[in-house]
């Protein structure tokens, strides 16, 4: 009986995808009143133009409601009305008076999706004349709607006799917004990349472990052109001298993998994106406290971001050459686990004294970045990781931490952050970090006595393994990858942070000058 139940559950969960947001479509003229209407407005006067296609009775009723509610038209303000015209719901979204950016348009789309989530019927969003300065304004709203409307209910009981109201899956139609024609080509690929990342992050660690991460990634890329996928297993990693990632995975029954997704849509040296992929971080022998440990199922958000970015670029056939490396391991404390004090050797030959097995992200990334640099001779390396609790102490959950050995590379990343709303704040690397991570018996320790400044020390450690003079940056997303409060385009939970940012960064990337190679040992 229990076996049957388990088999049924397995079959059900295998077949039930996370529910997608409403499909996005585009139109030039407003359809007939039905379902919900969304009206973005920056001031009272815009009602006449943007709502020009509405009948005058409806428009006047909306105007009276806005006046009597003293609606302020500020960015993000909303007013939900019912019982007007043929609409079951009318949502006015304030857009403020500043020029709208792509990121703000996405926020409008996200707000539209969440405010109308319970409407049983289609949603019509009037975007005519909105943000004339953004060439694909309508498409940006569509991206935001798909991202803001994301839910993950794969493990929720669903009564087959009572299906979800079909009207909740009816389309969200963006009327008069630019960029709808090309939506399928690029914006839809971007949301697919973000949603792949969110799903991987949200899945519990008994469902997604290193090998399964590889399987899911292969499935997501099936049929996508110009992509090669390799997954290095333990034997291959041993041959390649990747003792650092192997040491992290050795305490788990689920072996580590180094996943390499190469999308070659352009020529020239590739950009390498390396992601921390700890499918669960118990801390290992340096065990974490129990409270909140469950969140460490999402300690692979960096890896999810790099494969999500590659998916977006590949599916939209971007003319870029990019290599996503996901350094995958489960950090567990069994009898074979690494002990504090153990010394291991990374791919580039440098030795590491592991002072704390909970500082494992930098260990898997040490092999990922040194392998990426040696094999692909990239134009730049960007690693992304839920690396330290300390970064949240410094920056909160508004900015991800940015570290770089190249100012122009840091500038390109910051610009991509501003453009996409996944914003970055640069934090320092300092020569003294090498001193505090100096080991008496190996080339470097993986953490320092006292551990301060935590985020910078983690960054320094990873940079120490980029030793061929390649421009390199590190993004610490520990405090932004999982949200406890929703944003317009990010529901509570997995943000998929970094896909929008890195997608933009890679598309716009311009090669920068090489840097002085990192020291060959922490001592010098
Ligand atoms: N995965 C954690 C960092 C983290 C903390 C991510 C909270 C998301 C939320 C990382 O592996 C870790 O344990 N870092 C340690 C480093 C320390 C041992 C040097 C930390 O931040 O305490
Ligand atoms: Mn850890
Ligand atoms: Zn970790």
TrEMBL record:
GO molecular function, one term: metalloaminopeptidase activity
Binding annotation for Mn(2+) 1: 281, 358, 360
Signal peptide residue numbers: 1-20
CDD domains per UniProt: Peptidase_M17
Gene Ontology cellular component terms for the protein in this record: cytoplasm
Main subcellular localisation: cytoplasm
Pfam family for this entry, one: Peptidase_M17_N
Positions contributing to Mn(2+) 2 binding: 276, 281, 299, 360
Broad enzyme group: hydrolase
Function in brief: Presumably involved in the processing and regular turnover of intracellular proteins. Catalyzes the removal of unsubstituted N-terminal amino acids from various peptides.
Protein family membership: Belongs to the peptidase M17 family.
Stated name of the protein: Probable cytosol aminopeptidase
Organism annotation: Allosphingosinicella indica
Lineage: Bacteria, Pseudomonadati, Pseudomonadota, Alphaproteobacteria, Sphingomonadales
